[in-house]
Write a structure and sequence with these properties.
about 150 residues; alpha+beta; six-stranded antiparallel β-barrel; Pyridox_Oxase-rel; Split_barrel_FMN-bd; Nitroimidazol reductase NimA, pyridoxamine 5'-phosphate oxidase superfamily
């Protein structure tokens, strides 16, 4: 972990994975021919990868088109005044081998939306990065037109 100005802490890979285990919802970004798109997904870390369930649609089409993806997840501890954000970039692929599919059914994946989510997708990261940072007090937010004054004076 390396500390930067403003209290921003660059997280190690293991710290990133620890953060990802704290929450179960992230945002999946896919790049398609007509441009990028972002979807909320329920995920779980699994042996250095991320697994989520999906049905037919844009996410599945992106995976089948061999698109590179990114997943971002965030968390906050309001009592400590600390937040974090982790981004994984990598390749997503359908879980196809029967043994892997059966094993995936035992993972704690609970989609929020109803509907058929019969496809398991595994993201194998090529990079992982994260930051932990103090939550700024509202009076320190810069507001256009204030000439550098604090929002609350």
């Amino acid at each position: 972990m390396e500390e930067n100005p403003g209290g921003i802490e660059v997280l190690s890979d293991s710290d990133c994975w620890a953060c990802l285990r704290q929450v179960s919802v992230g945002r999946l970004a896919v790049a398609l021919e007509d441009g990028p798109d972002i979807f909320p997904v329920n995920y779980t870390p699994d042996h250095g990868t991320i697994v989520f369930r999906t049905g037919s649609g844009t996410k599945l089409a992106a995976v089948e088109a061999d698109a590179r993806v990114a997943l971002e997840a965030d968390g906050v501890d309001p009592e400590a005044g600390i937040a974090w954000s982790v981004v994984i970039r990598g390749q997503a692929e359908l879980v196809k081998r029967p043994d892997d599919v059966l094993e995936s059914f035992s993972l704690p994946l609970f989609p929020w939306q109803e509907g058929q989510k019969d496809q398991f997708v595994r993201i194998t990261p090529t990079t992982i990065s994260g930051r932990r940072f103090p939550i700024a007090e509202p009076k320190t937010w810069w507001t256009p037109g204030t000439s550098g004054r604090t929002a609350v004076e």
